Amino acid sequence: MSTTPEFDVKALAAQTRQMQESMARARERIEQLQATGNDGTGMVTATVGGDGRVLSLRIDPSVIDPTRPDVVEDLVVAATNTAIDALRDLHAESIGAVTEQIGGLLDGLDGSPFGGAGHVPPPEQHR
After folding, report:
1. Under the GO molecular function aspect, what terms does this record hold (predicted)?
2. What is the per-residue pLDDT for 100?
């Protein structure tokens, strides 16, 4: 006879629902995110949405030289990359918060026959 506590399927189902809801909320928050970056001088500014698409691009007219389009190109690339980097940081923060929540939910399974999150005992040997 086993001394392992009974596995609570209802508690596991509730924990699973909570994790799914947390992930859905995180996805919604990520979709709503916006990040802005600039070229370092503030002459070009780009804003990207949570999905990584460029939402806006502002270029100070003083940097536009028809004989040197490469200057504007470089500034636009720098501003856009800065915005994307900022968005990645926001994504990481959002995912980190969800990961903490999920970890807390998994810790609640300590009474399970698996001994909590991340631990699965070896199978019992029957004689």
Report:
1. DNA binding
2. 77
